[in-house]
Amino acid sequence: MDLLLIVTYVGLCTILFKVFRIPLNKWTLPTAFLGGVFLIGTLLMLMNYNHPYAKYAKEFFASVPVVPQVKGRVVAVEVKANQRVQQGDVLFRIDPVPYELAVVRKRAQLADLSKSALAEEEAWKSARAKVSSAVASRDRAKQTYQRYADAEGAYSQQDIDNRKQLFVGAEADVEAAQARERELRLEVDASYGGEDPRVAEVRAQLRLAQYDLDKTIVRAPSNGMVTQLAIREGMMAVPLPLAPVMVFIPEKERLLVGSFWQNSMKLIKPGLEVEVILDAVPGHVFKGEVVQLLPAMSEGEIQGRGQLASAAMIAKKGRAIASVSLEENLDDYNLPLGVQGHMVVYSEQFTHVSIIRRVLLRMMGWLNYVYPIK
Questions:
Q1: Three-state DSSP class for 28?
Q2: 2-61+252-300+311-367 is classed in which CATH architecture?
Q3: Using one digit for the tens of pLDDT, what is the confidence trace for 268-319?
Q4: In which element (H, E) is residue 312 found?
Q5: Tens digit of each residue's pLDDT (9 = 90 or more) over 162-188
Q6: CA 5 – CA 1 distance, rounded (Å)
Q7: Of 34, 96, 249, 256, which one is least surrounded by beta carbons within 10 A?
Q8: Is 196:113 a contact under the CB 8 Å cutoff?
Q9: Mean of the per-residue pLDDT values of the chain
Q10: Which range (145-154, 191-200, 299-308) has the least confidence?
């Protein structure tokens, strides 16, 4: 843009010298030169500071790498490249047979363990009944022993001893039945969330197997499209983050950003008027406004990597990045994502100087018909 201003001034001076037949001497040439230095220098200083110009402006968009959550052979690709899809639409399918078999196997294990748990509960109930029966037998044996022992002279000592031994045996049977009942009760009561732990574990494994089976159908994470589609039936899809099988571009509001020198950062505020020209649309000026000035610059970023920052990193110049929102929809111009161009932010100071900036920006837009300049 600076060069364009200089060329414009030289062209005007040439026309003036030709039209008005101004002689070229030691007075006219230095006057034209020094006048140009003063005029152009003043305009550049006022414009560059008060109405910053982004030589590099570009549309940014986020892409989502599609990584399957299960491993398998691709059996069907149902999405078409560069066509919009809705959230939940099927992108491709992975061979589900191994995961279907895993679900069947877990369901069989769950049914078997559920049956075993019911059998244990029935065994506990039977043990409780045996305890009751053993207690009743012990009580009868005790009563009989007491009757024999209290009837002095009616029974021989051997009969009394036999009844005593029967009572002691019945008492041992009660203790054995109670021990068995306690053992079975512990097995039944040892639950997780009101369920047998083994059943709960297999049920969780079944849910995981069903989850893996569901993930053999890979769906669109949101509204958007898949571009540069290269996946085909028969390819192996693996759940590796570094090896996505396709790139999904979500449908979001289109956003342009521009890089500015740091001397004008305090003048770039949200809501200021912005004009943008794009290489892809020659001669047209898009209007918009500043959304925000990004709060960080990558040129000053450091991370804990166990290595020191070099002096070259410190000497690297950083540029502020501002994001803008356009009034027009770029989709109406059938433009691909990632278009580039130039951008100007008009501050509230020296508004009369902004007219020159607007004219120069439009001249650059006209030059895009011939060759985009950077």
A1: helix
A2: Beta Barrel (2.40)
A3: 999 999 999 999 999 999 999 999 999 998 888 888 877 888 888 888 888 9
A4: helix 311-315
A5: 777 877 787 887 788 778 777 767 666
A6: 6
A7: 34
A8: yes
A9: 85
A10: 191-200
Question: 146-155: long-range contacts (C-beta < 8 A, 24 or more apart)?
Answer: none
CATH classification of 67-95+216-247 is 2.40.50.100, yes or no?
yes
pLDDT (0 to 100) of residue 188: 60
pLDDT at 192: 44
Burial of 308 (0-12, 13-18, 19+ CB in 10 A): exposed
Nearest one of 340, 201, 356 to 276, comparing CA atoms: 340
pLDDT of residue 231 exceeding 90, the answer is: yes
Spatial separation of the C-alpha atoms in residues 295 and 292, rounded to whole Å: 9
